[in-house]
Write a structure and sequence with these properties.
The protein is an all-alpha fold and about 425 residues long. About 75% of the residues lie in helices and about 0% in strands. The protein is built from 23 helices and no strands.
Length: about 425
């Protein structure tokens, strides 16, 4: 009963932060105090609770390093012209009837290359939303296509922090997991593409012509060499080279492109690494600003505090009662079904994707002996269920970035299809 009351208090604090539009870090810090106090009530010492917290943080230490690299690479790709090249030439072949499909495919590609839903939404998502708006396509459908695309890569990119978090938790190889994820997502991906194709053919389009992305060609030197940083990600991932080496190499080549092709001074590039890219063109600023190491500080803080919960829950047995219920439920339905239910519960109270993943793992740890399959189940549940919760920052941040309504969640069919398709024969 005490555990349930604490969880309800935690959920209420998170929801209050969302309603008041303030950072959920305040709720997470508040909850840390509650969970710390719970441990003391259960007979644990201050030292024990601090050790549990540290153990939780140590499980995500590699993720924090990757966050730094994500901040760097998202800034460098903006400055070097890598994103601009992809978007500019994709826009040349866009047509109103095919725009929803193109939006989904383009967001999938960029998110796979960048490995972050937030970064993809703030770059290619904003651009696609602007392009679809100029064609008078409903923001609900456009937002749904963007959400589907950005979480394609957030789930299975070799640069995805979620993919690496799951690999860390399950003690599995991230590249083996990605190969499995691509297989389990193939049918949902093609069905999603077909759905957006049909919607594009059926929905009425208003009058107006699409906006011009000539500004990219005017501002950047769109040399073919600007796509090398993106090509490095694909080639190195195929060769299964360590993701940190992959991202660092891509970033260094991107810096070279920014220096030699875009003629950005070295001193300015150093500033871009920390503070992000901000072009001096006002129109381009709205589309391409962002990235940088400092942009990842808030997310890193959320991950650190969330990982403390994981360590404290494990050390105090806070979730043992719920874990037993999940185990009983899994025996009655299927293991995948039990993990899916646990992920819904975890996502509903977590309000962020990382904590949802960690709680789902903790609730379902021990349900199966095959860690590779367990990792696949986590990717097919917690990763895509979290952004379906309207109060979670997993979806509120991308929707706010692209200016889409909450109703767009209903049109993000890829997020629904992943767990539904993988529920069969489990």
């Amino acid at each position: 009963m005490l555990e349930l009351f604490i969880l309800m208090l935690f959920s209420a604090s998170l929801i209050l932060c969302v309603i008041l539009n303030i950072s959920i870090l305040y709720a997470l810090i508040f909850a840390y105090g509650i969970f710390f106090g719970y441990g003391l009530i259960k007979g644990k010492t201050w030292k024990d609770m601090l050790q549990f917290s540290l153990q939780g943080i140590l499980t995500v230490k590699n993720i924090l390093i990757i966050f730094v690299l994500i901040g760097v690479i998202t800034a460098v790709w903006r400055a070097s012209g890598t994103i601009a090249f992809i978007v500019y030439y994709a826009s040349l072949v866009s047509a109103p009837r095919a725009m929803l499909l193109l939006t989904f495919l383009l967001c999938s590609l960029v998110s796979f290359l960048m490995g972050t839903a937030f970064g993809s939404a703030a770059t290619i998502g904003v651009i696609c939303m602007t392009l679809t708006a100029s064609m008078h396509i409903s923001p609900v459908y456009a937002g749904g296509a963007i959400l589907s695309g950005i979480f394609f890569g957030d789930r299975c990119s070799p640069m995805s922090s979620g993919a690496h978090l799951i690999a860390e938790l399950t003690k599995t190889n991230v590249f083996t997991n990605i190969k499995t994820m691509l297989k389990t997502a193939a049918v949902p991906f093609f069905i999603t593409a077909a759905v957006y194709t049909v919607i594009g053919l059926l929905i009425p389009l208003g009058d107006g012509s699409p906006m011009s992305f000539r500004i990219f060609a005017d501002y950047y030197n769109l040399s073919i060499f600007t796509v090398i940083p993106a090509a490095v990600i694909l080639v190195f991932s195929f060769l299964k080279i360590n993701v940190r080496i992959t991202m660092a190499t891509s970033s260094m080549i991107g810096l070279a492109c920014a220096f030699f092709l875009q003629h950005i001074p070295a001193a300015q590039l150093i500033r871009i690494l920390f503070f992000g890219f901000k072009p001096d063109n006002a129109e381009l600023t709205a589309l391409m600003s962002g990235g940088g190491i400092l942009s990842m500080v808030r997310v890193s803080a959320i991950i650190c505090i969330s990982s403390c919960y994981s360590g404290m829950f494990k050390g105090t047995g806070f979730l043992d009662g719920i874990k037993n219920s999940i185990r009983q439920l899994s025996a009655r339905i299927t293991v995948f079904g039990g993990i899916l239910v646990a992920s819904i519960f975890a996502s509903a109270i977590a309000c962020n994707q990382s904590l949802a993943i960690m709680l789902t793992h903790q609730l379902c740890d021990g349900l199966m002996d095959d860690n590779d399959l367990f990792a696949s189940h986590l990717e097919n549940t917690a990763v895509v269920i979290a952004p379906l919760m309207p109060w979670s920052i997993a979806v509120t941040v991308p929707l706010t970035s692209i200016g889409a309504p909450t109703a767009a969640i209903a049109a993000a069919c890829y997020l629904y299809l992943i767990p539904l398709w993988n529920m069969r024969k489990r």
